[in-house]
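Below is how a single chain appears once it has passed through the pipeline. First comes the sequence as given, then the structure the pipeline wrote out for it. We keep one example in the README because the format questions we get most often are answered faster by looking than by reading.
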Amino acid sequence: MTFLRSGGVAATAAALFMAPASAAQESAQPSPEQMKAMLEGMLDAAAAEILRPGERQPDWSSSGVDLRAAIAARPGGTARNYLVSLDKDGEASVSILTSAPAAAFIPKDWKRLSRNGDIDAAAPEPSLEFGQLDGRYYFVARVGSKAVGKATCSSAAVGAELYEAPGTNKPNALPPEMLEIMFKALIGIMSKQTVCEAAATEGSGYKIRYFLEDGRSLPTLNSMNSRTIIVAAAPVSELLKPKAN
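Resulting structure:
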């Protein structure tokens, strides 16, 4: 599990890409070098805001629910149950607790556009994270984590890949070459910070709260109003379809 999910790698990714996408659309046609520098600068600024710490909460890791234990307790355990996070617009991201090769889960018709690191490299308490970046473009990341009380902390992905999903009718805000630049910049930025997530029961699912390792909250991530549920294993392409939240 990781903060790159919806509230983890996915919500963070969506928020990081929002401002750069708007600015890139409105700007004149810069050179590739200028575009790369511009996007990296905007991503740095967006990351600083998203990871801006708030007040320290002394019980952040001791209260709530251990999500790994909750998944393992379901029939079939971690092999037959996944985490799905839904943002306020119903966009979904998926987390699978597994060390198995990523190819076993990536839809066969997805076209890989870019890679960073080795997505099948060993990682402690590994998970595979799937989320949408823009239109028909999705990322897949392998992330390691560690338990801190009932919370889970993670930082750099050992490997991440950018894919294009055919047959998707969602419009794209950015062309593929710009997305590749932003994808690599995002992975670099997120490797600089360890973020922890703590879960609390909310209705039939869970509300995830985000913290730094010293217990300071992350208000921007915590304001994204995503909801996380445990679902029976299914094809990732089906789980990623938008849903009512």
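Residues 6-11 have pLDDT under 50 and may be disordered.

See the next section for the split statistics.
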